[in-house]
Write a structure and sequence with these properties.
This protein is of the alpha+beta class and 190 residues long. The chain folds into 2 domains: 77 residues, Arc Repressor Mutant, subunit A; 96 residues, Arc Repressor Mutant, subunit A (Orthogonal Bundle). 54% of the residues lie in helices and 14% in strands. It has 9 helices and 6 strands. Helix 1 packs across helix 3. The termini are far apart.
Length: 190
């Protein structure tokens, strides 16, 4: 299959699917190599950007997904009357940061790092589809391990977890101080 035909096939599939498509799944279904899928998808993505089209093809870790161009999002919202996005409080952002940087991580490890019970925050993040259960730890009681979702990547506009900014020692110390203050306040709002 030549590149033009592969791009045509992928475009139709991405459009119809409405969710992300893993590179390996696409390669197997279309009977082409993994690198061919990546190159054709990246070229298709550039085509949309170069033509300043209303759609984009974004890479999410090892998958691609068709989505709306950011600059037309306000118009889309007015037409679709999409529900208001979830507001992430400082508590939720702190919990999400711990999960993003330490994943896979257990509920007890999150609570230990934050210094306060994190059950409500974890449940909210699951509800917002920003985190999910990714397995169980091979330890007594087999605690659940949490990690971020593709929705996390979409919401924060990053293509992979390796794109997360590195934390400096100063930032880590500041986070510890904030966690200590929160633990002392006993007034944790989620």
């Amino acid at each position: 299959m030549d590149v033009r035909e592969l791009k045509k096939e992928l475009e139709g599939i991405y459009f119809a699917l409405g969710k992300s498509l893993n590179v390996d799944t696409a390669a197997k279904a279309l009977d082409v190599g993994r690198e061919e899928i990546i190159l054709a998808s990246e070229e298709l993505s550039r085509d949309y950007e170069d033509d300043d089209r209303g759609i984009r093809l974004v890479r999410l870790e090892d998958s691609f997904q068709m989505c709306t161009a950011r600059d037309i999002y306000p118009s889309l919202i007015r037409i679709a009357k999409q529900p208001k996005k979830a507001v992430l409080t400082n508590t939720l952002l702190e919990t999400l940061s711990i999960i993003a940087y330490r994943q896979p991580v257990t509920r007890s490890a999150i609570t230990r790092i934050r210094g306060v019970n994190s059950d409500r925050a974890i449940n909210k993040l699951i509800e917002y589809d920003l985190i999910e259960e990714v397995g169980r730890m091979e330890a007594p009681g087999r605690p659940i391990l949490f990690g971020t979702t593709e929705e996390f990547l979409r919401v924060f506009g990053i293509d992979s977890l390796s794109s997360l900014p590195e934390l400096t020692g100063e930032q880590i110390e500041e986070f510890k101080k904030e966690a200590d203050q929160e633990a002392l306040s006993h007034d944790v709002d989620v």
